[in-house]
Design brief:
This protein has about 150 residues and is an all-alpha fold. It folds into two domains: about 70 residues, no CATH class; about 80 residues, no CATH class. The chain is about 70% helix and about 0% strand. Helix 1 packs antiparallel against helix 2, helix 3 runs antiparallel to helix 4 and helix 4 packs antiparallel against helix 5. The longest helix has 23 residues. The protein is flat, with a radius of gyration of 19 Å. The N and C termini lie far apart (about 50 Å).
């Protein structure tokens, strides 16, 4: 079994274990989530994504494996630096602006997408996540510069 399939299988097992443990907590309802709501939903999402990856790894078993030498350390360093910057400016600049800048940086600088694509995805990701967490679920998100 190739390494990618083993890695995806590991994530499937982590997701199933996490889901099992999350079910021990009170689930609640969508309008009043309990302590187990988010862990259960995230574990289920991880399981679905991991199963898709596992299936793709088995489907691509005959294709050429990606060599470890192709791992681009520059992308890793840029991503970790962006995460640290996100953590430091999150409270001061605010959720919407920081999330937009973080996603735009990752897409434009790290992944080399076009400005239009990076901007559109960053705007969508920041607005949709703000609507879900800030407005619908009432999570306290820092307003920062926009005072929202």
């Amino acid at each position: 079994m190739k390494r990618a399939a083993v890695a995806w299988l590991f994530f499937v097992l982590i997701a199933l274990g996490s889901f099992y443990e999350a079910l021990k907590l009170p689930f609640g309802r969508t309008n009043a989530p309990g302590a187990g709501f988010f862990p259960a939903v995230l574990a289920a999402l991880l399981a679905v994504v991991s199963l898709i990856g596992l299936i793709a790894a088995f489907r691509d078993a005959g294709e050429q494996q990606i060599s470890e030498s192709r791992l681009v350390w520059k992308k890793i360093i840029l991503t970790v630096t962006a995460l640290l910057a996100f953590a430091f400016i999150f409270e001061y600049v605010g959720y919407l602006v920081t999330t937009f800048l973080f996603v735009a940086f990752l897409l434009r600088i790290v992944e080399r997408k076009s400005w239009a694509q990076a901007g559109a995805v960053a705007l969508s990701a920041s607005l949709i996540s703000y609507i879900i967490f800030g407005l619908l679920l009432g999570a306290p998100l820092p307003a920062g510069l926009l005072l929202i």
